[in-house]
Amino acid sequence: GAVVSQHPSRVICKSGTSVKIECRSLDFQATTMFWYRQFPKQSLMLMATSNEGSKATYEQGVEKDKFLINHASLTLSTLTVTSAHPEDSSFYICSAREGGPTEAFFGQGTRLTVV
Amino acid sequence: GESVGLHLPTLSVQEGDNSIINCAYSNSASDYFIWYKQESGKGPQFIIDIRSNMDKRQGQRVTVLLNKTVKHLSLQIAATQPGDSAVYFCAEMDPGTYKYIFGTGTRLKVLA
Prior knowledge:
Distance between the termini of chain B: 35 Å
Helix content of chain A: under 10%
Largest sheet of chain A: 7 strands, mixed
Number of helices of chain B: 0
Oligomer: heterodimer
Structural class of chain B: mainly beta
Number of strands of chain A: 11
Strand content of chain A: over 45%
């Protein structure tokens, strides 16, 4: 299957700082990328959908000013958690899809811990 | 839809036996479905997909069954191995937005 690389895999940051997570499609062009958040022993919660070159679409309840998403190229999307707080600690996962109704491939996830 | 605050159901299977993991989906108009496997601390891994014009699809040691009448999806794993231990999620694609809606997940434990 296609490869999606997410970086970093783990990050610890201080409360009030910002953290950027990168998601790259390595062997295909991702017209659409998704960002998810996952709490322990729970399913994936979609945060936002980003299409290359356009603004991300956020799910209800997700603060777009807190979770900044940029999808500037067909192989890279970034999620920046701004002014992070301990309640933002979670497992963040990206996925990428080449076209319309096809399979999406996931990155390895990023474990964010805010102290 | 999304699940919040629910604990994962667990299926325990003896090594070598077949596993059947079930999933109910929400939208009768959904026409594309995927099963993912997620190991601890990792992102989900694509296993197999199926479109609504089919009711069965087979892969290597895995079979997905789709029953549109009752909006039910199942994943069958033949000759379950210790490496199959993981959490399994089904996902349906919203036909309007092309977003994926994940089920609650099932933890598969393979007993030696």
